[in-house]
Amino acid sequence: MVICIVGLTYTAFTRDESVDWHSNIYTGLVGVLVFFMIISILTLPNGPFIRPHPALWRCVLGLSIIYLLTLQFLLHQDYNTIRAVILWFDPSMVNYTVNSEKEYGTNCWDVSTERLWGHVDWFAFGHYWGWGMKALVIRHYGILWSISIMWELTEMVFGHLLPNFYECWWDNLILDVLLCNGLGIFTGMQVCKFLEMREYKWESIKNIGSAKGKFKRALLQFTPESWTHVRWLDPNSSFMRLVAITQFMLIWQVVELNTFFIKHIFPMPAEHPICVTRILMTGLIAAPTIRQYYTYVTDPQCKRLGTQCWVFFMITFSELILVIKFGLDLFSHTQLSMMGLWLVLIVAVSCAGVWVSHVIYRWRHQAPCLPDQEDIITPEKVSRFLSEVDTGAAPSPRVQRTPTKKEGGGPRKRGVKLPP
């Protein structure tokens, strides 16, 4: 705190505010952000994670609150003001239009090696990396594949609003679902498997003598302290678990849709720093959010959602309100039948994912049948057992458990120690 006060005093009295008002605003925003992060570290509750340090996840919660308040401010502005803010950050966006974006859904039957390779751009790597990160936080094959398939269906349903969603069948099925998403899910789940089987033995860095050991221990500080196996679904889960999974998938689709609607309504390329920063920030905020939501859904002792989870929900719906408010011309072309189909698909895919997960679980954990066991009805089993008892092939069900006489002939005595 002393360092912050000294730095603030030095900056306030040594900067020349008359040179550039843009610099004044930048400096003021940075000061607000820094001091809010300090307040977050001192006052906000801990998150579900403790590595690399609980203070980091308090800062993540503070950052999400800052973003939520920024969205509340933008909701009360007009379109030209928000557009002016974007141009103030990046004047090169003045002539950018959404028509200059790359199209993926043309000449779908013109398939060649060159065209397939042309679609393997940085977006493909983003798909792979993103699904690897999603696998690290969700850790369930059934839910991951359900969300992956549902997102491709979402692109088809919302293609009449965002033409960039239209993709060729081989792009949707092969490049996206099977290759990029599938490899990302597999890689992330393998990392989860490695972290789950790893033996965690942490030693204080003060007890390590070599410099190499201290450096290695410092790097390990950014790895999990422990790794717990998650179980979103189990055979004893109730109907409300299915509702929670469906709600989880719905919110996930809305978060993804907000990404594309924001960059379409406020024209920006996908690689713009504002878009990239929002995606990275959303991924960082989503990690503790999913963990808190999972705990609330699966732990009977947990009676309320975590703070980070509530803030994330408010961010999601604030972004949705923002894009609807400033995209009324776009959403006026919405086909209600497609929206109804989208909601039905979310429920159907959720139910199908839960059902397939249960089938696979029973198949993997079914009890092996003994080779000498025969499939006979109960009366036949009783008759066979009684016949074996009569012939002496089976032990009698009546067993003398406590003898009344010792082998020596005397009465059986039981040693009992009485209290003094």
Description:
There is one protein chain. The chain has 420 residues and is mainly α. It contains 15 helices and no strands. Helix 2 packs across helix 3 (54-75), helix 10 (239-265) runs antiparallel to helix 11 and helix 10 (239-265) crosses helix 12 (307-326).
Distance from first to last alpha carbon? 66 Å
Beta-strand fraction estimate: under 5%
Overall average pLDDT: 79
Structural class from helices and strands? Answer: mainly alpha
How many strands in all?
0
Written as H for each helix and E for each strand, in order along the chain, the element string is HHHHHHHHHHHHHHH
Q: In percent, how helical is the residue content? A: 55-70%
What Rg do the Cα atoms give? 31 Å
Count of DSSP H/I helices = 15
How does the overall form come out from the CA principal axes? Answer: globular
**Largest sheet, described in full?**
none
Unreliable residue stretches: 197-203, 370-374
Q: What can be said about this structure in brief?
A:
By secondary structure, the chain is mainly alpha-helical.
Architecture blueprint of SSEs:
Elements: H1 2-14, H2 21-43, H3 54-75, H4 79-89, H5 113-118, H6 122-138, H7 141-157, H8 169-197, H9 211-220, H10 239-265, H11 273-298, H12 307-326, H13 328-331, H14 336-365, H15 378-391
Keywords:
420 residues, mainly alpha
